[in-house]
């Protein structure tokens, strides 16, 4: 299996396990899907995915997007969901002083008015390093990295969570905590 095929399958898994499970699989509230059901549903859609491929994708995902349960029966995306069937209980944590959010310059006007909104996903996604944030922002246009005064937010009662892959999550970032 070429790295291009693995990458394409990883994107398909992200889509199904985060956003669109309606291919004949069920996600529980913590995001878990039965692997046999997932592979059967993918086959019905004309995608040949086997357990070895899943293991390789989980092990090699650059952002550690997926996890397989300890009994080997289930797989999930660890964060990034938009589907209403999932509402993960992420680990609440005290954030570092600063976190970063990468976005596109064309969104700045609206962000100045509304702050950072979760959009279709369940949370606003923040990273611990500016480099990751630049790559995230590039997906939508000319990137800009915003600095978020996360610790100050936390001290004022905003909750922060960290997914198993290190991505920081919060519900909303008012603009007064954002440095351009
Ligand atoms: C923007 C990737 C206008 C926001 C990454 C972003 C991440 C606003 C877009 C994860 C806004 C939402 C999530 C406002 C926010 N007005 N635009 N008020 N507030 N936005 O894809 O953070 O590779 O839902 O800046 O690593 O880009 O997929 O969120 O540009 O962790 O594993 O609205 O996805 O991970 O876009 O990315 P998204 P995101 P993966």
- Provide the gyration radius in Å: 17 Å
Work out the helicity level. 25-40%
CATH topology of the largest domain: ADP-ribosylation fold
Major sheet: 4 strands, antiparallel
Poorly predicted tracts of residues: none
Distance between the termini: 42 Å
How many individual helices? 6
Number of domains: 2
The CATH class of the largest domain turns out to be Alpha Beta
Categorize the overall geometry: elongated
SS content category:
alpha+beta
Mean pLDDT: 96
Number of strands: 10
N-to-C series of helices and strands: HEHHEEEEHEHEHEEE
Please state how the strands of the largest beta sheet are arranged side by side: 4-8-9-6
Your description of this structure?
This protein is α+β, with helices and mostly antiparallel strands and 180 residues long. It is built from 6 helices and 10 strands; from the N terminus they run H-E-H-H-E-E-E-E-H-E-H-E-H-E-E-E. The chain has helices spanning 3-19, 35-44, 51-60, 108-114, 130-138, 150-155, and strands at residues 33-34, 66-68, 74-77, 91-92, 98-104, 124-126, 143-149, 161-162, 168-170, 178-179. The protein folds into 2 domains: 3-77, Orthogonal Bundle (Arc Repressor Mutant, subunit A); 99-179, ADP-ribosylation fold. It has a 4-stranded antiparallel beta sheet, with no helix packed on it. A 3-stranded antiparallel beta sheet has the order 1-3-2. Helix content is 33%, strand content 19%. 29% of the residues are buried. Ligand HQG is lined by residues 14, 63, 65, 80, 103-104, 107, 110-111, 114, 116-117, 119, 121, 125, 136, 140, 167.
């Amino acid at each position: 299996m070429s790295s291009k095929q693995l990458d394409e399958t990883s994107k398909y898994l992200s889509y199904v396990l985060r956003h669109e499970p309606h291919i004949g699989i069920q996600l529980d509230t913590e995001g878990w899907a039965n692997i046999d059901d997932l592979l059967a549903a993918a086959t019905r859609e004309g995608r040949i995915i086997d357990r070895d491929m899943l293991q390789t994708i989980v092990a090699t995902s650059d952002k550690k997007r997926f996890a397989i349960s300890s009994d080997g029966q289930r797989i999930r995306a660890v964060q990034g969901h938009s589907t209403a069937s999932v509402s993960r209980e992420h680990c609440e944590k005290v954030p570092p002083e600063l976190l970063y959010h990468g976005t596109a310059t064309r969104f700045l006007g609206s962000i100045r008015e509304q702050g950072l909104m979760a959009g279709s996903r369940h949370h606003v996604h923040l990273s611990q390093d500016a480099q990751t944030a630049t790559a995230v922002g590039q997906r939508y246009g000319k990137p800009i990295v915003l600095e978020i005064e996360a610790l100050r937010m936390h001290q004022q009662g905003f909750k922060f969570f960290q997914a198993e892959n290190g991505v920081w999550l919060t519900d909303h970032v008012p603009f007064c905590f954002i440095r351009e």
